[in-house]
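As practice, study what follows.
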Amino acid sequence: MASLAEVIHETRTVREHDPTKFVSSWTEKEVLDGEVVDAFVLILRTRGCYWARKSGCSMCGYTNDCFTDVSEEDLLKQWSQALKVYGKQPVVKVYNSGSFFDPNEVPPRIRTIILKDLGRMCQKVVVESLPQLVRRPILEEAMRLCERFEVAIGLETANDFVRDRCISKDFHFDRYLEAVKVARRCGVSVKTYLLMKPPFLSERAAMVDVAASARAIDGHTDTVSINPTNVQRDTLVDRLYRKGEYRPPWLWSLVEVLKELRKSKARVMSKPTGGGKRRGAHNCGHCDWLILKAVEEYSLGISDWLDELDCECREDWENYLLVEDMGRCSVNLERFLS
């Protein structure tokens, strides 16, 4: 019988891309010093996450934009193009569908060039990394070059069993805590991603897991970002979704989790990718836009009207939880009923 890692690897399709062009860029809202500001988001194209080459995570489809041989000169061309579209936003997020600190994805020379440029251009820089690649010398360099620096870590869950058996990520909770300690010593802020509803968990179990994980890291991280799973192509989640064995989380579930975590020390936020669409967190379709607006305003600290949300489909969500509890499984009931 194939292992979870082998099944995940088999679902992947390798695509060719122009290594001189970055994946995407856009502007989004972010919080800086308690104020809502614009943030420039850049996705660099690299050779991809090292773990994805061995196995990858059950929900991650970012490999669709990577796995291309990218040279240092290619990355410099991408960066040069990015600078032309940068609009002087005070916050810049540089992502590469893997780890910014992995020298095989972003070579040290290129990393230094990017951080030097950003240090002169913006007030805060945010990058992503697996915890095992968060090391003191790299963070100390970042703090020398940038006014403020933040590392975002995809913990996904504080439960090692769920991370190993449902997500297939190659580190344990203790390693995350070590990375946070290193970041703290260097004056680097930390954002932690938590995955809401990985495959094989029921809706209610997923709510319990993400809320428990947020409480477990409260006091360690500055920000908790709850990411409802969205179905990305050529992933294990996509395979389950097409067979009717997985449904993205309900927006009602996200609302309840946010309400439960109101008293957290860390800032708790959510920006559901694909929210309101069939492959993203969604409800009935009629109330989705309103709930997404409420979640956005709550996440940015603008207002909190989560308790005022209501729709006829809330009863459907409650019944969905009951049916899954009785069946002790996670099934896309809507697919079979439509």
Summary: The mean pLDDT is 92.
